[in-house]
Structures are given as structure tokens and as C-alpha cells.
From TrEMBL, chain A:
Pfam families noted in UniProt: ThiS
InterPro entries, per the entry: Beta-grasp_dom_sf (IPR012675), MoaD_arc-typ (IPR010038), Mopterin_synth/thiamin_S_b (IPR016155), Sulfur_Carrier/Prot_Modifier (IPR052045), ThiS/MoaD-like (IPR003749)
Name the UniProt record assigns to this protein: Molybdopterin synthase sulfur carrier subunit
UniProt cross-references to PANTHER family, sorted A to Z: SULFUR CARRIER PROTEIN CYSO (PTHR38031:SF1), SULFUR CARRIER PROTEIN SLR0821-RELATED (PTHR38031)
Gene3D superfamilies: 3.10.20.30
Organism: Dactylosporangium siamense
Entry-linked NCBIfam families: moaD_arch
Taxonomic placement: Bacteria, Bacillati, Actinomycetota, Actinomycetes, Micromonosporales
Automatic annotation (TrEMBL), chain B:
A Gene Ontology molecular function term of the record: cysteine synthase activity
Residues annotated as domain Tryptophan synthase beta chain-like PALP: 9-287
Subunit structure: Homodimer.
Positions where N6-(pyridoxal phosphate)lysine occurs in the chain: K44
Protein name: O-phosphoserine sulfhydrylase
Cofactors: pyridoxal 5'-phosphate
Catalytic activity of the protein: [CysO sulfur-carrier protein]-C-terminal-Gly-aminoethanethioate + O-phospho-L-serine + H(+) = [CysO sulfur-carrier protein]-Gly-NH-CH2-C(O)-S-L-Cys + phosphate
InterPro entries documented for this protein: Cys_synth, Cys_Synth/Cystath_Beta-Synth, P-phosphate_BS, TrpB-like_PALP, TrpB-like_PALP_sf
Annotated pyridoxal 5'-phosphate binding sites: N74, G177, T178, T179, G180, T181, S258
GO biological process: cysteine biosynthetic process from serine
Keyword annotations from UniProtKB, A to Z: Amino-acid biosynthesis, Cysteine biosynthesis, Pyridoxal phosphate, Transferase
Length: 103, 316
């Protein structure tokens, strides 16, 4: 059994349009490296040059935010479901609000 | 005493109500903080009142001034009521496709509405509000996502009410929007209750909402401080609808879909406590009632029907 990874629309150019892909790894960091071996470039979109999780990317393991589970060191088990989403805390209105207000 | 001099005074002091049927055991209990029992029917009455008072105290708002805010939701309705009673003019900017219930209610409270093109969505509404505000430097935009009085409303009122009514609280769960509720209540409870857990439930919308949003242009509200939270869950449309319906059917509480998402996370932590053999008093916040969402059609039919009815909508 593998780990199911849900890919947001904006990153499906790396997965040939696939909404979900399978991956493997004991931690989120391992999983991202595994994904990058088949979907080259995806890891660089999710991590900062310093190697941390991008501020505007949220990653969830079984619906829980990995930033509260050890971030990239968060442990994974076979059968887990991982979801990657753009950060839109506050809903789309907040997103739009900040964007427009900052010009 | 439940007697008040005006409706503004009747803001807050909402009931904390137990869920005897959905609570996992007598030692692991769930409690709902019913914020729909505020004057305009949502938790945003506290926020509107505190933001207006703070602007008055800072000298930013004087009688007869105009407030402009890009909103079509609970904050707009709450601000319309507060502005009416304290003598301000309110201009709301919103996309032209928002529901008739909302515009009718806002106009009844005396708010003026400026519509932006539907195609531009909320993005366009905010841009329009910003343009108008720039043309009128004397108008005031309260901007709830970055306004400290938003979180302070909960630090000074919601948090103390919860602790007063349930000193044995172990977990607090609320929705993550502007983040004001979780930041304010969370900070208060962390100061007063050892080992309290502060848990966020974030709505996960249908794909249409996230669309082609660029990862480099994401947004985190200025009020957000991750250190206040213990855990953060993402709750999808289907689970939120399921829990919203369960609250009506099992406990008799008719709530909005965001409360369903919050209950879903509350049940998760409650069952983990049960499994670990720990006692728990889990408080979750119900931001509003279900009335404004009836027209979505998502309260009837199958779960799959409801999920597709809400697809592409900002249901929380």
C-alpha cells in the first residue's frame, strides 16, 4: 500500500493533469523527494530555497496540518492520505482582500 | 440577569450548551458555544462592536462618518447594525451575484451597497472598495483580517465567558477565517488553563474555489500567529455537511456549515481523548445559524447532492 497525494490544480502540470498520485516515504520530506523523482520540479514549488515549507502552501496528513505534526519531519504510514493546498486561510475573500489592499 | 438597555448591550453572553447524545462518554463531553444567539445572528457582532469602539477611541471615527468595507457576509450584517445604532454610514462593496437575503438585510439596516462585476469575484470587490476609499480619504476601512480589535473582542468577551461557564475546559475548537476567534480565545485560555489545547478547523472548499490560485500569491491574515494553536485540521465539504445535519437531527441545533466543520474536528479530538483514557471537556464555537444557507439546497437531499450544491461556493 502507498500514500495517496492530492494535488491542487495549479500543480497538475507536474503530474500530467492527475488529481491524485501515489508516493512513498517515512516522512513528508521523504515523500516530497519521492514525488519529485517522478514529477520533476514539484518539490521546488513547495519548499523555500532554505528547505522549509513554503509559507503559502499547506500540507495535510489525514486532514491535519503538518506544521503542527513536525512539519517536513511529520511521520507517514502506509495508507495515509496527504493533501496539498494553497494557503487561503480566511477564505477567498480574505485572500482577495489582502492582495488588493497591498496592491 | 437577561435584561439589556439596547441591542448592542445584548451582544455576547451567549449560551454554552452540552451535546448529551454526540458526546462520546460521561468523561469526554462536547459543548457548543452558540454565537448565533447574538443580535444579528453571528459571532461577528462582537467583532463589529469592538472594531467600531476601538476606532472611536482612537479618534478614527466620529459621529456621521462613513465606514467602507468589502464584505457580503456576517461581518457586513453585524457592521450594518452597529453603524446604524451608533450613527455611522456604512458602504459595503460586494460582487453583484450575492444572495438577495443578504442585500435585503443590509439595506434594511441602512447600509449602502456598491456592486462590483460578478466575474471579478471578491477580488474585484476589494479592489473597488480600495479605489473608493482612496477617493474618500476621510472614510474608514476597518479591515477585520488585520484589525487587532477583532481578536481582542474574543480575548475580552468570548474567552472569559467560556472559562466562567466551564472551568474544566480542556479543548477549544473554532473555525479559521480571519483567525480572530482562535487568536483571542486561544490567548486568553492559554493564560488561564494549563495544558489547554487550541484547535483550528479550516474549511476545505471545492476545487473551483482554489482554482488556479498561484502558490506565490497565497494569503495568511495578519492576525494569525501559529504559536497560539495546538493543532489545525482541514475539513472538506462532505464532512461539514454531514456534521451540520447530524447537529440538527441528533442534538436539535440548526447551524451554518462552518459549525459542521468545527464539530467534525471537535469529534476527532474527543474520540482521541476517549481512546487515550483521558477526561475532556471540548468546547466548539458555532459561528452562526443555518438560516442564511437554506437557499444553497444543501440541507436536503443526499450528501452527494449537497456536496455538489456547495461546490465552488464559500460555504464558511
Amino acid at each position: 500500500m502507498a500514500i495517496e497525494v492530492r494535488i491542487p490544480t495549479i500543480l497538475r502540470t507536474y503530474t500530467g493533469g492527475a488529481k491524485t498520485v501515489e508516493g512513498a516515504g517515512d516522512t513528508i520530506a521523504d515523500l516530497l523527494s519521492d514525488l519529485d523523482s517522478r514529477h520533476s520540479g514539484i518539490k521546488a514549488r513547495l519548499l523555500t530555497p532554505e528547505g522549509g515549507l513554503h509559507r503559502f502552501v499547506n500540507v495535510y496528513v489525514n486532514d491535519e496540518d503538518v506544521r503542527f505534526l513536525g512539519a517536513l519531519d511529520a511521520k507517514l504510514n502506509d495508507g495515509d492520505s496527504v493533501t496539498i493546498l494553497p494557503a487561503v486561510a480566511g477564505g477567498a475573500f480574505a485572500f482577495a482582500a489582502a492582495h488588493a489592499l497591498r496592491g | 440577569m437577561a435584561r439589556y438597555e439596547s441591542v448592542l448591550e445584548a451582544c455576547g453572553n451567549t449560551p454554552l450548551v452540552g451535546l448529551p447524545r454526540l458526546s462520546p462518554s460521561p468523561e469526554v463531553r462536547l459543548w457548543a458555544k452558540l454565537e448565533d444567539r447574538n443580535p444579528t445572528g453571528s459571532v461577528k457582532d462582537r467583532v463589529a462592536l469592538w472594531m467600531v469602539k476601538a476606532a472611536e477611541e482612537a479618534g478614527r471615527l466620529r459621529a456621521g462618518d462613513t465606514i467602507i468595507e468589502p464584505t457580503s457576509g456576517n461581518t457586513g450584517i453585524a457592521l450594518a447594525m452597529v453603524a446604524k445604532l451608533r450613527g455611522y454610514r456604512l458602504v459595503c462593496v460586494m460582487p453583484e451575484n450575492v444572495s438577495a437575503e443578504r442585500t435585503t438585510l443590509l439595506r434594511m439596516y441602512g447600509a449602502e451597497i456598491i456592486f462590483s462585476e460578478a466575474a471579478g469575484g471578491s477580488n474585484r470587490a476589494v479592489a473597488v472598495a480600495k479605489e473608493i476609499a482612496a477617493e474618500h480619504p476621510d472614510w474608514v476601512m476597518l479591515y477585520q483580517y488585520g484589525n487587532e480589535a477583532n481578536a481582542r473582542a474574543h480575548y475580552e468577551s468570548t474567552g472569559p465567558e467560556i472559562l466562567r461557564d466551564l472551568p474544566t475546559i480542556t479543548h477549544f475548537v473554532a473555525g479559521l477565517g480571519t483567525t480572530g476567534t482562535l487568536m483571542g480565545v486561544g490567548r486568553y485560555l492559554r493564560e488561564k488553563v494549563e495544558d489547554i489545547e487550541i484547535i483550528a478547523a479550516e474549511p476545505r472548499y471545492g476545487e473551483l474555489v482554489y482554482g488556479l490560485r498561484n502558490l506565490d500569491e497565497g494569503y495568511v491574515p495578519e492576525l494569525y500567529d501559529a504559536k497560539v494553536l495546538t493543532r489545525r485540521f482541514s475539513v472538506g465539504t462532505r464532512d461539514s455537511v454531514l456534521r451540520t445535519r447530524q447537529l440538527v437531527e441528533v442534538e436539535g441545533m440548526f447551524v451554518g456549515f462552518s459549525a459542521g466543520a468545527v464539530l467534525h474536528a471537535a469529534l476527532a479530538v474527543a474520540h482521541q481523548a476517549l481512546k487515550a483514557g483521558k477526561r475532556a471537556d471540548v468546547v466548539f464555537l458555532v459561528a452562526d445559524g443555518g438560516w442564511k444557507y437554506l437557499s444553497t439546497g444543501a440541507y436536503g437531499g443526499t450528501l452527494a447532492d449537497a456536496e455538489s450544491a456547495l461546490d465552488g461556493q464559500l460555504w464558511a
